[in-house]
Amino acid sequence: MGSSFFAIYNAYMISSMTGYGSASHPIEMGEGSYANLQVEIRAVNSRFLDLSFRIPDECRAAEGALRELLNKHLKRGKVEFRAAWRQSTGEHARSQTISIDPAKLIALKQAQAMIQGQFPAAEELRVADILRYPGVVTESETAEDQWQSATLKAGEEALRQLIQSRQIEGQALAKVLTNALDAMQDMVTRLEPRIPEIVTLYQNKLVTRIEEALGVHATQANIPFNAELMERIRQEVVLYAVRIDVAEELARLKTHIQVARTALAEGGAVGKRLDFLIQELNREANTLGSKAVHEDCTNTALELKLLIEQMREQVQNLE
Fold first, then answer.
1. 85 lies in which domain range?
2. 318 neighbors 169 (Cβ within 8 angstroms)
3. d(CA 318, CA 127)
4. Does 299 lie in the same domain as 178?
5. Are 88 and 37 in contact (CB under 8 A)?
6. Do 147 and 11 fall within a single domain?
7. Is 246 found in the same domain as 269?
8. CB–CB of 271/18 below 8 Å?
9. Which of 86-95, 125-134, 211-220, 228-237 is most confident?
10. Are residues 64 and 156 part of one domain?
11. What pTM was computed for the model?
């Protein structure tokens, strides 16, 4: 499988962190017998790229190259690489990749005879003891190359399937996120033109209540109406109205929404970037709610927070 496939998909497509891929590859064992190597790659969510390998000793030589391959094409996720093989024509076929060193056997026999000459009661070597002796049994270089090549080929094909499955899910998640951003944009667009009116209404309402309260108090206490005091009150109300104005929060919400859209359009590994944007969106929605002095603002803040939380759950799955 060419590296161009991985380069194209990693560069331009959004991927989930969960996925699965599998592949098999035959290995010639000699005299017409074969082994079937089966490889599986599973991936789940993780903040960073976490690789683990569960492979037989025959495949161990390929682990370094496999680790490099996975690091090159995956950015995040807990990834488990498994490999196992099965003999296709009986257990005896595996011996075709084993060779015995005659010189080592002669040396062992001579050493045994010498030891037994000095210690007649010493037991003779068993076959298992001889096979475990360093250098007696060796695996041919050709066989090791075959295992390494087969493991890499099967691993690359399984990785291709893993990437495809992650991208299919990633595209579905991107659509969900885009729909949520559309809904948020609609909310902000509907509320934004009403902010000056809402602030003015609240300002007038507050002034009216203060005037009524002061008027009653002044009448009860026989205090003359103070125009200078009322002007000062009006100024304070204006300052308070500025503090409850949420135009800046709405403007920042629109900016964060657009940045999130751009990230989804550009593709690639956007999970961490979107996770940061979710935090910023949530901060502005919280501020909008805390400043709300009108039912429309309160409802919008609550709906925004609900959508943001839904987006957060989905973004946690993105690479």
1. 3-93+141-168
2. no
3. 55
4. yes
5. no
6. yes
7. yes
8. no
9. 125-134
10. yes
11. 0.69
